Amino acid sequence: MDWGIAMNQARTVAAALVLALAGCNAPEAGKANPADPAATATPASAEPAPAGPAAAQPALAEATPAAPAGAAVQLPAEACVKSEDGFASFFEQFVYQANVRSAYSAPKIEIRDLKDPGKLLESQTPQQAGPFKIALVDNQWSYDEPGKQAGQLDRVKIDRTLSGDRMRVDFVKAEFSPDEEVVKTLGKPEAYVFEFKQGCWQLTQQLR
What we know:
- Residues 30-62 are annotated as: Disordered.
- The protein has 208 residues and is of the alpha+beta class.
- Helix content is 24%, strand content 31%.
């Protein structure tokens, strides 16, 4: 073989081997070269994803409507006038209606001595003081006693005395003539005292 031709073939083979080796060492497409600093750098923190819609707050419970206040006690306009006639109108309603007695009685009733009203014996709630002792039966003032029917109640003689803001109602069991005159009184006299407060009358004392 010609020596020149042999040399050319040897160079060609060597070049092919170099290209083959270069192809094997080249990084695969799409793969990072570990030697490349950019490939090993820690990636920047990703921006947090937008938070989803805030959890719906539980609906506030609807306010419970306030219980309707008890119906106001209705009195005739003249009943809350500080006068003899005004008290007469008030007293009739007070005797007739339990809700009026409840609304127009002081939280504490002062129990005082009938002969010496300045002497305070004790203070009681209206319930402790017992039922109001004056009733109106067939347009006649009567002495209300538990356990007795209306027709069995004794009649009472009543005297009212207005002094400033106070109305004193004295009462005692009595017998009457056919002409409605007092024949005689029975038992011990008693009295109630009302005071004009907050625009109307209020039971504040019981005298025994």
